[in-house]
Description:
Layout: H1 10-15, E1 30-37, E2 43-50, H2 78-87, E3 95-99, H3 115-121, E4 127-131, H4 139-147, E5 151-159, H5 163-168, H6 175-187, E6 191-198, H7 205-222, E7 226-231, H8 238-244, H9 253-266, E8 270-273, H10 288-301
Parallel strand pairs: 2-3, 3-4, 4-5, 5-6, 6-7, 7-8
Antiparallel strand pairs: 1-2
Bound molecules: iron/sulfur cluster and zinc ion.
Amino acid sequence: MNLTDINISDSVIVSHRGSRNSVDISRPYGWFVEKERTCSGKIESTGVIFLTNRECPFKCLMCDLWKNTTQHTLPPGVIPAQIRLALEKMNGIRQLKLYNSGSFFDSRAIPPEDYPEIASMLQNLETVIVESHPAFIGERCLSFRDLLRPELEVAMGLETVNPMILKLLNKKMTVDDFRRATDFLNSNGIRVRAFILLRPPFMDEEEGIFWARKSIEFAFDCGVESCAVIPVRGGNGIMDDLARKNLFSPPSIKSLEKVLEYGIALKKGRVFADTWDLHLFSSCSLCLEARKERINSMNLRQEILPEVVCKCDT
Ligand code: SF4
Ligand SMILES: [Zn+2]
């Protein structure tokens, strides 16, 4: 199939969706504590809070985050209350990821009136990481930064630097937009983390590895401090439709290991592999646990560890 013949739009993506989950706006839809290597090289307890809030205005092809969102903006005070609830259950964290299934700096997702209260709850942390589409990077980032005592880091989806595929992802962003947003943040003392997709639709396994590596190189060249590589999964409706048409297959956990190795070897900054639901990317129960363990250890140590050897390699 010729990629230029593929019709991807907001309405096509939305038409394939199932129903959203029912969410409770008095609480985040998830939270947990994980270990992460910080940019100073220490391994610190890191809280992750998935805020319940209004759906992102973008409709990216691979995104399933809309499932746990609302269709209306929440009144001021609701988001700080969600954060307080989760923080009360997290002991000893030094970093916090405040992820809102969209853009923290989208005023229809997180009311800017809430910034002072949110910042006041985070004063004892070292780093606060929020996520945003480059389109929302601007003065609001600086207002939030100025209220925070911890360092602010912004995570943005670069996704892929393959221009044709980036367009088909319907993110409504170019690599130049990503670079400009990174420049703005860096020039204002805000660190940047890039989300990079491993094997988005319309790529075979080798192309998936190739473009993930290229994307890591580009991200570091832009001034990003860390990259998180995310193996692409189905489950949002349109991705399952593409899978049925053989236009999408999830990558293998072995490809994730290869891209992680490559990124760490560059020594340009921290490179992490996303570790959620890794069983989705393996068809071998003999080596899955060992590969998970290897990936986790490489994330924490930022060193390439000996490869897992298994019957499934041959
Ligand atoms: S910008 Fe992020 S949250 Fe919004 S649709 Fe795209 S991937 Fe999902
Ligand atoms: Zn195996």
